[in-house]
Amino acid sequence: MNWNDITHTMQPVITYAVEALIGALALYVLQAVGRVLPKVKAAYEARTTASQREALHKIALEAFAFAETTWKDTGGPSKLSAAMGYVSKRLREVGIAITPEEIEAAVHHAWLTFNPDKKDPK
């Protein structure tokens, strides 16, 4: 028996072993991805939420300034309504969906930021 006969005889065994090894490696990689993917998704969602919150607060500050300058001769409820309308419109434009309560809280936060000595924004 010469070397060519041995390699010809062993070729199917070697091919089968390599395919089994590749299959096992692929299974390991898929399991690793399956374990890491939920963590990556949670981190992405947390970051998205954080960036949305940051955008909300920046827009609320803009809305507060808008309401204070545009509605300076009217009372608090009118200003609050105008500011909330501004925030709602801007958030829709950038594709962020937030509840009216969260918008109102952000506007109140903006009000308190500019009026730290006052307690009730209404």
Q: How many structurally independent domains?
A: 1
* Average residue pLDDT: 84
Q: What are the secondary-structure elements, in order, as H or E?
A: HHH
Radius of gyration: 31 Å
Query: Shape, please?
Result: rod-shaped
Helix content: over 70%
Note the total helix count: 3
The biggest beta sheet, please?
Answer: none
Q: How large a portion of the residues is in β-strands, by DSSP E? A: under 5%
Q: What is the total tally of β strands? A: 0
What class, by secondary structure content? mainly alpha
What's the N-to-C terminus distance?
98 Å
In terms of per-residue confidence, which ranges show pLDDT below 50 for 5 or more consecutive residues? none
Provide a descriptive summary of the structure in words:
The protein has 122 residues and is mostly helical. The protein has one domain (3-114). It contains 3 helices and no strands. It has helices at residues 3-70, 76-94, 100-114. α1 packs antiparallel against α2 (76-94), α1 (3-70) crosses α3 and α2 packs across α3 (100-114). It is rod-shaped and about 105 Å long. The chain starts with a helix and ends in an 8-residue tail after the last helix. The mean pLDDT is 84.
